[in-house]
Design brief:
It is found in: Endoplasmic reticulum. By secondary structure, this protein is α+β, with helices and mostly antiparallel strands. It has seven helices and four strands; from the N terminus they run H-H-E-H-E-E-H-H-H-E-H. It has a domain of about 110 residues: Cytochrome b5-like heme/steroid binding domain (Flavocytochrome B2, Chain A, domain 1), CATH 3.10.120.10. About 5% of the residues have low confidence.
Amino acid sequence: GGMAGGAARVLLAALLGALPVAAQPELRFRPPAEAPVRLFTEPELARYDGQQEGQPIYLAVKGVVFDVTSGKEFYGKGAPYNALVGKDSTRGVAKMSLDPADLTHDITGLTEEELKSLDDIFNNVYKAKYPIVGYTSRRILNEDGSPNLDFKPEDQPHFNIRDEF
C-alpha cells in the first residue's frame, strides 16, 4: 500500500538528516572546540580602552584579543602601557614602541629580530598570562568580509590564571 511507502520515505529522510528535527541534536551537542569565537571590529575593541572604571581592558596582538584587566597597573587609565589597549597593537609590541604610528596590526617592514621578539612576547607574555576573549575581524574575515577559511583559534597551552594572584 501507498501508506507504508510514505512512512518509509519520511524515515529515510529523517535518517539522511533532511528533516530539521534530525539535525537539531547535532547542533546542541557540538564539541566545545566548535564554540563560536567572538569577533571584534575596531570600534568594538576601542570600547575596552581602560578609560571606564569597572570595564574590562582588551588588547589585541596578531589579531588575538586578550583580556588584560588583571594587568590594570600596566594597561589601565594613566598606566604606562595604556596606549596599547583598545586596539590591535601588534607593531608596537614588536618594536617595543608606544609611538601612535606603531599602534597598528600592520607588520610590514619589521626586521627578523622584531618579528621574533613579537612571537616571544605573544607566546610568553600575552598567551601565558591573559585569557583570550576573541579575535579581530581582520583575523577572522577576508578583505571582502567573507569568512577566512584558514582561521584557527589559538590554544592556550601554558595559560595558568594562578600566576595572577
